[in-house]
Amino acid sequence: MKASAIDPQILGEAADWLVQLHSGTATPSDHQAIAQWRNRSAEHAQAWQRAEALLGEFQKVPANLAIQTLQRAARNDGLSRRQTLTWLGLLLMAGPVSIASQQVPWQQWTADQRTAVGEQKNLHLPDGSQVVLNTESALDIAFSVTERRLVLREGEVLIRTAKDPAARPFIVETPQGIAHALGTRFCVRINEARSQVSVLEGLVEVTPQRLQQPATLKAGDRQSFTLQGFDPLERFDTSTLAWDKGMLLASNMRLDELLGELSRYRPGVLRWHPDVAALRVSGAFSLRDTDASLRLLGDTLPLKISSLTRYWMSVEPRV
């Protein structure tokens, strides 16, 4: 049975049961009634599976605010409950979605410098180099008499190196390898099992951890790499790298890629329907006011932008 084939009435009943189950006052008879309802048919069982999956997504929201919303709605017979049930019904009917959410790894809490979601930090290093630490990032500063080393544990950093009187090499280390700056301005980002170096000025040598031969990048080069080797080299317009100015500049960008970027700068969950993922977007979008960026998308594209709470945003096709 396809997800979209579930009767909307059954999905609405699943939403009602979900609110009741997580009201904080559910009784053993409630649990028994839910089990009986779930076993009525394969369609009822599938609707409940979808409700449980949705609940799992709710639990990603900071401080379980969405769960608290369910509990408040369960205690309220008025508009709040009706609104919540309407929302849950719509979310359940939406079927499979893509989700971006933030989780803080333990490495961030022990790093020399770190930023929260949506925060950026300007740093002045002992040698005069300048660093901008991007959203949800963690960095160790390990300068010695023989080298200037930064260890990027998570996230993204933009660096403008200064000339060092002692001619110490400037190195940025990631879990996948190192970037050796040769008098330059460049950006290093960790994308899960990959690192990425984008050069805006000068030259950077990049060496994956398990390779001996580095690749030399010039301005406008962008190189992603794993422990074992390099991805194909990309060229990019250096003027489009503007996150340090609080902007995301998109040129014919896929919507799912743009939403994934916006999600890095906002707490909670940002979800989108697969039907809108391939839409193409061009424009300038604020990273410091991502709500405004989402409203702009809703005004310019056939999209419905909805929010259950500040921490739960949904992007759907506009019907």
What does this protein look like?
With 319 residues, this protein is α+β, with helices and mostly antiparallel strands. It folds into 3 domains: 3-94, no CATH class; 106-236, Jelly Rolls; 246-317, 3-Layer(bab) Sandwich (Phage tail protein beta-alpha-beta fold). 29% of the residues lie in helices and 34% in strands. It has 8 helices and 18 strands. The protein has helices spanning 8-21, 28-38, 42-58, 65-74, 79-94, 106-110, 255-263, 290-300, and strands at residues 98-101, 113-114, 121-124, 130-133, 138-143, 148-154, 156-160, 170-174, 177-191, 194-208, 215-218, 221-225, 234-235, 247-254, 269-272, 280-286, 303-309, 312-317. Strands 2, 3, 4, 5, 6, 7, 8, 9, 10, 11, 12 and 13 form a 12-stranded mixed sheet that branches. A 4-stranded mixed sheet has the order 1-15-18-17, sandwiched between helices. Strand 8 and strand 9 (177-191) form a beta hairpin. The longest helix is centred in the first third of the chain and has 17 residues, at 42-58. The two termini are 23 Å apart.
Distance between the termini: 23 Å
Global outline:
elongated
CATH topology of the largest domain: the name is Jelly Rolls
- The ordered H/E elements are HHHHHEHEEEEEEEEEEEEEHEEHEE
Number of helices: 8
What number is the mean pLDDT?
83
Query: How many structural domains in the coordinates?
Result: 3
